[in-house]
TrEMBL record:
The keyword rRNA-binding is assigned to this record: no
Keyword terms of this UniProt record: Glycosyltransferase, Transferase
SUPFAM superfamilies noted in UniProt: Nucleotide-diphospho-sugar transferases
Name of this protein: Glycosyltransferase
Skewed-composition ranges (Basic residues): 441-456
Domain Glycosyltransferase 2-like: 19-119
GO molecular function: glycosyltransferase activity
Feature: compositional bias, Low complexity: 425-437
Annotated EC: 2.4.-.-
Amino acid sequence: MPLRVSVLVPPAAAGSRSLLASLDRQTLPAAEFEVLIGDDERDPDLTARLDDLVAHRTNVARVPVPVGGDVAATLLDRASGEYVVAVPADRVFTPDALALLCDRADATGADVCLGLTGRAGSRPAGLPSDPDRLAGPAGGLRRRRATTAAQVADDLAGADATADGAAAVASTLCFVDGTPPDRPAPPEADRSVRARVVRATWTDGVLEVVAKLTEPSDDVRASVYSDRTGVEWPLTDVQVDGERVTLRIDPSSVPGVGTLPDGTWWPSLRIGGRSPVLLGGRPQKVHGASVRERTVISFSGARKRVGLDVGGHAHQPIRRLDPSVTSVVEDSRGSLLTSRLKKIDLAPGSRPTGELRLGRMPVVAWLEHDGTGPVLRAWVSGLAGESSLYTRFGHAHFAPTGTRLVVDGVGAMTVTRTVRRPAPEAETPEPSAAAPEHQPGRARRLAGRVRRSVRG
């Protein structure tokens, strides 16, 4: 099948391990794109490393470029994809960048399709008034047959891209600028004004957060912020009533970014033009999840700051199972465990799958709506004994549910709460009353008697 896109990498970025790693993580299948890495062959070690890379990757090629030669023209002549993406140095791809840009270009017939660029390591001083124009330099996907070497040269140099001649703009994060070694640390939140979460609930895939400010303000702007990349996206669905602020976050539709990328995002407020304020709250007040096309979990971190784990990479949506609403029903097909869930917002008709682990044995589990609310279901089995239960929906590790499956001698199954037994106290041996105070001296005397008896 013809290649969809050719990724053009200049010699200045040929040694970037982070760029190559981001290409390995692309959701677009490797068979549908090629990576052409320009090499001016001035560094023999780099050339050898690239040759080894080519030997282990079928879609990567090293393209020799003469020193002082036309890098853009050389790479463009070698490209065979329907589209080309020229990558300047110190820039990496988000995991779905190539797939998103190709799909957008296919759907619109555009010769140029732009993706937004986030800057890593420093939080913006302020938010732009237009959410659709958030980024600085943009990366571009171009239709190869309509692309000139001069345009590729501009892209490789990281020049500010414009929408001239573009039939569509992909208004989502596709590229992340590299982090300079001397980057400043993100600014600390303004501690003179704070916002504490009063309530956080999921409804129809939207997280509604109600926060109370320490002082009233009419100038409140809300956003979600990634401390890993320094990218900040504004939220427009915000209501302010004195000290009370209500913001709604739809992870599938954020202004300027579209679908919120996977990772940890922190809702924050800018009050009266001051530094950003992160939302605080207690874990039991804010934990919840929306399980739809992907797992999104609201949580409270170690510093009691409210965050969003998009994709479930660090948290699990199911933290506890309640034995009082958990049953195991046996029929001709086996034993079906059903447990009613709380704080799970499940889309009607959806059936996301995950795993339920019985001790060390994982089985397939799924979530569904039984007409009254979301439930967890799984077919279980086992020998007589007890097995602790763990769940996993998303990418994070298995999470304990605080319950165990008990199978009695005749095979009947029940789910009970896990009881933590205190560790037994170590017993201190009492000293023997008959033991002499100078045991080592007596041992030496007995040893002397033995030696004398042997000699005699």
